[in-house]
Structures are given as structure tokens and as C-alpha cells.
Amino acid sequence: MSEHLNKRGPETDDPPSWGNVVAGLLLGIGGAILFYSRYTLFQHTENATAAITRIESLVYQASGKKAIVLLAVYAVISLSGFYLAISNIVRLYKVRSKRDN
Q1: How many CB atoms lie within 10 A of CB 81?
Q2: Sign of CA pseudo-dihedral 25, 28, 31, 33
Q3: Residue 16, by phi and psi: left (phi above 0), alpha (psi -120 to 50) or beta?
Q4: Can you state the angle between helices 67-100 and 18-43, rounded to 10 degrees?
Q5: Cα–Cα distance between 73 and 38 in angstroms, integer?
Q6: Cβ contact 94:20 at 8 Å
Q7: I want to staple 28 with a disulfide (CB 3.0 to 4.6 A). Which of 2, 5, 37, 82 is the partner?
Q8: Strand, helix or coil at 66?
Q9: H-only helix segments in the chain
Q10: 63 Cβ neighbours under 8 A, 6+ residues apart
Q11: Distance (Å, rounded) from C-alpha 59 to C-alpha 39?
Q12: What is the pLDDT of residues 47-100, one digit of tens each?
């Protein structure tokens, strides 16, 4: 039974679509915007408090109040979104080239 669960075949992959490309681009752009906005927020704080959400505050507190960790989270989100978009574009073109042959 475990052999069946570890197999990875075409039926377990999501088919590539332009919707996935758009979703990946939106995720990547959103992560980049959040990265830039939080970077400018932490660079230009004259007062001790910064306006961040509760989830961001939890990550910030857990990291020992290091802004670089929060920025790294947004960088990973952005990179994963762009990876999703690029991988779906590549898969779409592979499917199209197989279909044309």
C-alpha cells in the first residue's frame, strides 16, 4: 500500500492552466509588494512601534524582533508564486508541443 502512495504519476499532478499562471503571478506580485512595503516600514520607523498585523507580529516576536525574518517570509512567498507561474507556463508549452506533434 505504501508503494502506491509514493508513486507519482500524471493523475496526481494538477493539469497546467493559464489560471494557475495568473494565480502564481498574483501571489508573486503580492509577496513582492508586501516585501517592499514592510521593508520601507522597518527602514523608516522613527517611533518604536510599527503598524503590522497580528500574524506578522507573531512572526516578528518569535524571531526575536528581527525584521529580516519577516522579510524573508515575504520573499519566500513571492518566489514561490513566481515559480508556480513559470512552471505552469513551461508545462503548458510542453503539453501544447505534444499535442501539435
Answers
A1: 20
A2: negative
A3: beta
A4: 160
A5: 11
A6: no
A7: 82
A8: coil
A9: 2-6, 18-43, 54-62, 67-100
A10: 69, 70
A11: 15
A12: 545 678 888 888 888 988 888 998 999 999 999 999 999 999 999 999 888 888
User: The pTM is what?
Assistant: 0.76
**C-alpha to C-alpha distance for 97 and 39, rounded to whole angstroms:** 42
For 58, the grid coordinates are: 507573531
**Cell numbers describing residue 71:** 522579510
Q: Grid coordinates in use for 16?
A: 497546467
Distances (CA, A) of 3 to 7, 8, 10, 14: 6, 10, 16, 21
Query: Which amino acid belongs to residue 95?
Result: V
